[in-house]
Design a protein that fits this description.
Helix 2 packs across helix 7, helix 3 runs parallel beside helix 4 (108-127) and helix 5 (177-185) crosses helix 6. A hairpin with a 2-residue loop joins strand 6 (138-146) and strand 7 (149-155). By secondary structure, the chain is of the alpha/beta class. The chain contains 10 helices and 14 strands. Helix content is 32%, strand content 23%.
Length: 385
C-alpha cells in the first residue's frame, strides 16, 4: 500500500482532541499546529480516518510543501509537485480553498488561479495534451500559506466531515456536529453516565453523545469524494472501513441522554434528526425550559450550547438566563457542567468561577468552553486532554 502524509483540519482549540482520536485509531501523529493535525497512513488509513474521526473537518493527502514569497515561486513550487500521481488525464481539478496567514501572498483568488495554471502546465507535459476536458472525477485541492510556507493538500472528503447526514432539519444557530462531538470528548462523560442538554436545539449534542454511546462511526452513512478515486484507492477499502464500522455498532446499550428545548418545533426537529441518525431510542427529548432543569440522580453532566445573545433583544435577557442556569446547576447533586458561549459575563451570572475554561473558535466567533467539575464517582478516573 502507498504511504501518505495525511492532514486533518479541525476547529481551533480542538487539536488535542483530534490528536488523541488519531492515535486511538492506530496512526502516528507527526505534527500538531493551530487548526490541524498531520499523521502518516496508507490508503486504508485514509478511508478509516474519514469514516471514524469525530472531531476532524476533512482528510487531505499532503501533495507537498515549499517556500514561496512571490507568485513566480508559487507557480514553480506548485508545478514541481507530482500531480500525475493523483489526477488522471480526465480528472476535474481546482483549488477549492486557499488560506494565508502572515505570508506575503495573501489574495486567495490569485493564489487559486496561479496554482491551477501551474497544475495544468505540469499535467500537459505528463499527458502530452494541450487541453483538459475535466469530464472525470473531482480532485479538489486545498492550500495553506503560513509565514510563506505553502502546504498543498488533496481533499479526499468533499463535504465537510461535520455533515454526518442525519441533520436534515436545523435550528437558527446550530452547533457543528464535529464541534459538538469534540466538546463531549473534552469531558469525562461516558455512556453509563447521565447527560442533559437543556438548550438542545436541533439535537446535535445529545445525538453525537448517543452515537458515541452506541459506538457508531460518524461517517458510516455518508459518501466521500475519494470514493471515486479508483486510480488512488480501491473501492474495497471503503467497503472494509464501513463494514468495520457496522460491526462495532451496539444499539442495545442503556443510556440516560436527555435534550430539552423551550420550543416545541425544536423538540420535533431534534427527534426527527435522532431518527435519521438511528439513535432515537437512546435519547429522551422534551419541551422544557432551563428553569425546570432537575434530575434525581447524582454525578450527571450538563453539556450545552446556550444562547450567546447575538441580537440586542436577546442580550438583554442573558443575565437572567445565565443566573437561572447557575441556580439549576447548583440544585443538582454532584453534577458537572460544560458550557460553550461567547457571552463574556457567563461566570458572573452563573455565580461561580469555572474550574477550567478553554478558548475555542466556533467558526469565526471566539467562544469559551466553561468547565465546572463535579466530584467523581468512587473508582473512576478523569481523562486528560
Amino acid at each position: 500500500m502507498r504511504r501518505f502524509e495525511l492532514i486533518a483540519p479541525c476547529h481551533f482549540g480542538m487539536e488535542a482532541v483530534l490528536k488523541r482520536e488519531i492515535i486511538d485509531l492506530g496512526y502516528d501523529v507527526t505534527e500538531v499546529t493551530d487548526g490541524r493535525v498531520t499523521f502518516f497512513g496508507d490508503e486504508e488509513a485514509l478511508c478509516r480516518a474519514n469514516v471514524f474521526l469525530r472531531s476532524a473537518e476533512r482528510i487531505l493527502i499532503k501533495v507537498g510543501s515549499f517556500h514561496a514569497e512571490t507568485f513566480e515561486e508559487l507557480f514553480q513550487g506548485t508545478k514541481a509537485l507530482p500531480w500525475e500521481e493523483y489526477i488522471p488525464a480526465d480528472g476535474k481539478f481546482w483549488v477549492a480553498k486557499a488560506g494565508s496567514v502572515k505570508s506575503k501572498l495573501f489574495s486567495p483568488s490569485d493564489i487559486q488561479s496561479i496554482m491551477k495554471k501551474a497544475m495544468v502546465e505540469r499535467l500537459k507535459e505528463v499527458y502530452h495534451t494541450n487541453w483538459f476536458e475535466e469530464s472525470g472525477n473531482s480532485y479538489p485541492i486545498r492550500v495553506f500559506l503560513l509565514k510563506d510556507e505553502v502546504t498543498v493538500g488533496l481533499d479526499s472528503t468533499g463535504e465537510s466531515l461535520h455533515k454526518r447526514g442525519y441533520r436534515k432539519l436545523t435550528a437558527k444557530a446550530p452547533i457543528a456536529e464535529n464541534l459538538a462531538a469534540s466538546l463531549i470528548m473534552l469531558t469525562p462523560w461516558r455512556r453509563d453516565r447521565i447527560l442533559v442538554d437543556p438548550f438542545c436545539g436541533s439535537g446535535t449534542i445529545p445525538i453525537e453523545a448517543a452515537m458515541m454511546a452506541a459506538n457508531m462511526a460518524p461517517g458510516m452513512k455518508r459518501d466521500f469524494t475519494a470514493m471515486n478515486w479508483d486510480n488512488v484507492i480501491t473501492k474495497s477499502l471503503w467497503a472494509d472501513a464501513r463494514e468495520e464500522a457496522g460491526d462495532l455498532v451496539d444499539l442495545s446499550v442503556q443510556t440516560d441522554i436527555q435534550g430539552y428545548d423551550i420550543d416545541d418545533k425544536m423538540v420535533y426537529i431534534a427527534r426527527e434528526n435522532a431518527k435519521l441518525a438511528g439513535v432515537d431510542r437512546l435519547i429522551h427529548f422534551q419541551r422544557r425550559g432551563v428553569e425546570a432543569l432537575s434530575h434525581p440522580k447524582k454525578y450527571g453532566f450538563i453539556i450545552t450550547n446556550p444562547p450567546y445573545g447575538e441580537r440586542l433583544e436577546e442580550k438583554e435577557a442573558l443575565p437572567a438566563l445565565y443566573k437561572t442556569i447557575g441556580e439549576r446547576y447548583a440544585a443538582l447533586d454532584a453534577w458537572s457542567m460544560y458550557l460553550i458561549t461567547a457571552y463574556e459575563q457567563a461566570e458572573r451570572d452563573i455565580g461561580r468561577k469555572a474550574d477550567k475554561n478553554r478558548k475555542i473558535y466556533n467558526g469565526m466567533m471566539k467562544t469559551y468552553y466553561y468547565q465546572f467539575m463535579g466530584p467523581k464517582p468512587a473508582g473512576t478516573k478523569r481523562d486528560k486532554v
